[in-house]
Write a structure and sequence with these properties.
By secondary structure, the protein is of the alpha/beta class. About 45% of the residues lie in helices and about 15% in strands.
């Protein structure tokens, strides 16, 4: 029986749920679409391969680990076992039919020469084909804060996975795509707020002015970039239109964040109002009691002043006022 993702005990195996918010797998599936022929680079235990097949995609999988690759044989259309850094492996994966999509989910950072791999994969695309990839953002706030503290500690997974040999920011991944003859046309961000990554930065160790400076970067809390790119023939107008589209995406993302913040404030206000409502009712009841008491006192005073005794005592009150 072929190994399953669970039995391979692969470090990078993860469940794939297309409905999850703020998730690289969900973003990639959205950008990729269904009913495609896909060349998947670095399939690992095949968690994403299976999601592609569920979307009626035909997948040619390339995987370094022979044990993990064995588990893909009943899932993928074809499995190529080998190192993506070897041009012969890429060549053996490419066939005459071509591919609608080349997908590289958190793979390029593990390769010594990702640019050469992207250039090779570009030739695998059918006309109108695209590349969908995800890479971690080395410019995340937690990494910057660690560097300011003199730390750059590798871990088994995450932003500083010890097998990473390349590190990307938004500008550097865009530059790599341009050098590969590809144009980024779509961008999604997986966001993890400062102090919440595996870097485990202690908030108490960061001065407020330092934190404010680090967070000034609009991508300071971006954990991963998920990107769709197409073959670019060098047309400047097309590149300009793509740039405008990405800028509009950024504006929409900012607007969604602002709206979410406003909704959060509204929800807090609703909660606060619900907590204050009993106090307000109590205060209103007390106010009504005081008002009733004041009215009763006024009626007593009015009655007293209009009484015959009060009027008969008026001369005496006048004398007393003179003597004072």
């Amino acid at each position: 029986m072929a190994p399953t993702p669970e039995t391979t005990d692969n470090t990078y195996w993860a469940p794939v749920d297309r409905n999850l918010p703020n998730n690289s797998h969900a973003f990639a599936l959205e950008l990729l679409g269904a009913n495609k022929r896909v060349l998947e680079l670095g399939s690992a235990a095949g968690h994403f391969t299976r999601a592609l097949v569920r979307d009626n995609c035909r997948v040619v999988a390339v995987e370094l680990d022979p044990v993990a690759a064995k588990g893909l044989e009943d899932v993928a259309e074809r499995v190529v076992v080998g190192d993506l850094s070897d041009p012969a492996v890429i060549e053996s994966a490419i066939d005459d039919e071509g591919f609608d999509v080349v997908v590289a989910g958190d793979v390029l950072e593990h390769l010594p020469d990702p640019l050469t791999v992207l250039r090779a994969c570009r030739s695998a695309l059918k006309p109108g084909g695209m590349v969908v990839l995800s890479v971690p953002n080395i410019a995340h706030a937690d990494i910057k804060l660690q560097l300011l503290a003199g730390n750059f500690d590798y871990r088994d997974t995450g932003l500083l996975d010890r097998t990473h040999v390349h590190f990307f920011t938004r500008s550097s991944v865009e530059e790599m795509l341009r050098d590969a003859g590809l144009l980024m046309i779509d961008l999604r961000r997986v966001v993890l707020p400062v102090f919440t990554t595996e870097q485990a930065v202690d908030p108490a160790s960061v001065a407020p002015e330092v934190l404010a400076s680090v967070l000034a970067d609009p991508d300071s809390e971006t954990y991963q970039f998920v990107i769709r790119a197409v073959v670019h023939d060098g047309n400047a107008e097309v590149a300009e239109l793509a740039g405008r589209a990405l800028a509009l995406q950024d504006e929409l993302a900012d607007e969604r964040e602002r709206r979410a913040a406003v909704e959060a404030e509204r929800d807090e206000a609703v909660v606060a109002a619900s907590l204050l409502e009993p106090l307000l009712h109590d205060a209103e009841a007390r106010a009504r009691d005081y008002e009733a008491l004041a009215e009763a006192r006024q009626r007593y005073i009015d009655a007293l002043m209009s009484s015959r005794s009060y009027r008969m005592m008026a001369p005496l009150r006048a004398v007393r006022a003179i003597l004072r």
